Amino acid sequence: MAQARTSLPRTIAAHAVLIAYTLIALFPVFVILINSVKSRRAIFAHPLALPGPQSFDLIGFTTVLHQGDFLRYFENSMIVTVSSLALVLLFGAMAAFALSEYRFRGNTLMGLYLALGIMIPIRLGTVAILQMMVAGGLVNTLLALILVYTAQGLPLAVFILSEFMKTVSADLKNAGRIDGLSEYRIFFRLVLPLVRPAMATVAVFSMIPIWNDLWFPLILAPSEATKTLTLGSQVFIGQFVTNWNAVLASLSLAILPVLVLYLIFSRQLIRGITAGAVK
Amino acid sequence: MADRKPVRWHIAVFLAPAVIVYTAVMIVPLFGTLGLSLFTTVERVPHYVGLDNFRTLLSDPHWSGRFWNALGNNFWFFVVNMAVQNPIGVGLAALLSSPRLRMAAFYRTAIFIPTILSFVIVGFVWKLILSPLWGIAPDMLAAVGLKSLFAPWLGEANYALTTIALISVWQFIGIPMMLIYAALLTIPEEVIEAAEMDGITGMSQFWKIKLPLILPSIGIISILTFVGNFNAFDLIYVTQGALAGPNYSTDLLGTFLYRTFFGFQLQLGDPNMGATIATAMFGIILVGVCLYLFGIQRRLRRYQF
User: Fold this and answer.
1) Are A113 and A233 found together in one domain?
2) SS3 of B67-121
3) Given this model, what pLDDT does residue A4 score?
């Protein structure tokens, strides 16, 4: 059967196109990474050459690590991302469970209300969000960012997780009820472990925009103590425009953490998408 | 079953955290912003002015020029994104989903990588590559004998916006590719086999069988692109700064909102006009989403397998 669909010239053509596009996708990242470990002269003379024994130089990284507060930025980004993700997943899963498990008045309406946020970006409320954070004394705190990102991530999380929770067998839950488990235990002990793959998908989807956001850190938490890695590298690069070694090194430092996380989670991400969570 | 207990508190407990955070941090500020657009602040005292701010935005020569410029740019940004991103995304997904393709997982992972990078990285990477100073782009063009085609694309008002739109396509191509890929995988084998029985293979199979089946996914991608493009800000801010140069040629509604709300250089920040622009953006996005939901999505035929 498959024989009829695959012919050699067509396979070669498919690979050629995919390799060409892969090169386009990876080329800029590759250029940054190789040049970040080269000396200033080599960067300008042979930007596309791989670093060799003569051109190898870590001056960019030493500058960055001495001048910038990258460790603190990184720590801030981690705190914000991890806390928001944890809240999105916990609150999102709880709400999704309520919506998919129980029939109550206003169920559909509540689902629509929570789904509104998928289409309407939270950025449009920025003016009032800032006023609220000023009133609450939360400007320049990481808590402000965590709250905003939790609200931002919830709609999609509830939407995807409730689709998944509908597939958890009702017999299992009813067996739990007959055994005298409370509704809370059914949720935490029976349902949550079963939807773990869906939680991972939601985690990856929510993590990328939180980690990469520039708008809210710029507006709600621009102080030196609360800068996230994204905002920190933006400011740093702005100051060191002419120091190419430092710019390239800081870009590499900003690329690596996401890249590593992505490669760890990518299998899960693809499985989640192809399982039909997002259609 | 459902009426065992008179009040099922656990439902409220499960819903409460999400609903409270979402309402307090997202919905209330959203409507608060819409409300702020009806006021003006004179010496720290808000005055109700009705729709005056919108009148200013649309007809005052100082404001309307910037607004229409940003709106027009935003449309062009969206058009380029749609016209380039979707065909390439669909094409890549179609290739990836061909049966027995080796290394498909590698291609998928690699092509999605730009999507996970932050705007700061994407903006600076492309600034460096396209820079006439460092000159990877001019050197590469010279290598294939096309050096004369090079221009400082990000620095010229005619090209800058299109260049940034193409960078945005490069960054986000992974999303349509993944979603279409997933949609293509859900087409049942029997449908494809039936098509083959009838002698429909290769390209005509894609156009006649697969494309109609993935149209709903293309619709969702289009509306996501629309919403994303009409509140885009980061990429412009990173590559061109808040002034969206050269000469406002890359100004989008997002950067316009940022400058108005926060002020920039000589211009003082104005929360009420900022809220007015945010409300205008809200209206545009709402109209777009409604047009899609009621005009397009209802006409798309969905096939149940």
Assistant:
1) yes
2) HHHHHHHHHHHHHHHHHHHHHHHHHHHHHHCCCCCCCHHHHHHHHHHHHHCCHHH
3) 47
- Residues in CB range of A2: below 8 A, 6 or more apart: B99, B100
The Cβ of residue A143 has, within 10 Å, a number of other Cβ atoms equal to 16
**A55 and A77 both lie in a single domain:** no
If one counts the domains in chain A, the total is 2
Q: Which candidate from B22, B33, B91 shows the least CB-CB separation from A124?
A: B33
Chain A residue numbers with beta carbons less than 8 Å from the beta carbon of B19 are: 95, 110, 114
Position B183 confidence tier, pLDDT thresholds 50, 70, 90: confident
Residues 130-149 of A with CB under 8 A from B: 131-132, 147-148
Whether pTM > 0.90 for this model: the answer is no
- Which ipTM was obtained for this model? 0.84
Domains of chain B (ranges; CATH) run: 64-297 (1.10.3720.10)
CB atoms within 10 A of CB A43: 23
Min CA distance, A258 vs chain B (Å)? Answer: 7
pLDDT score of A158: 93
> CA torsion, points B69, B78, B254, A225, in degrees to nearest 10?
-140
Q: Pairing between strand B45-48 and B263-264?
A: unpaired
Domain check: are A45 and A146 in the same one? no
Let me know whether A154 and A234 are in one domain. Answer: yes
With H, G, I as helix, E, B as strand and everything else as coil, classify residue B42: strand
Put simply, the answer to whether A120 touches B275 (Cβ < 8 Å) is no
Q: CB A129 to CB B29 under 8 A?
A: yes
Cα–Cα distance for residue pair A255/A247, rounded to 1 Å: 12
Domain with A227 in it: 68-239
Q: What is the CATH classification number for the domain harbouring A72?
A: 1.10.3720.10
Q: Residue A31 and residue B129: Cβ atoms within 8 Å?
A: yes
- Residue A254 is assigned to a structural domain of this protein: no
Residue of B25, B161, B1, B15 lying closest to B80 (CA atoms)? B161
Whether B304 shows a pLDDT value over 70: the answer reads: no
Q: Are residues A183 and A127 in the same domain?
A: yes
Pairwise CB contact (< 8 Å): B33 & A276: no
Contact state of B220 with A279 under an 8 Å Cβ cutoff: yes
Residue A47 and residue A85 in one domain: no
Tell me, yes or no, whether A20 and A137 share the same domain: no
Do A9 and A77 lie in one domain? The reply is no
In a domain, A262, yes or no: no
In a domain, A227, yes or no: yes
Tens of pLDDT, residues A175-213: 999 999 899 999 998 898 888 878 887 887 788 889 888
Compute the nearest-CA separation of A135 from chain B (Å).
13
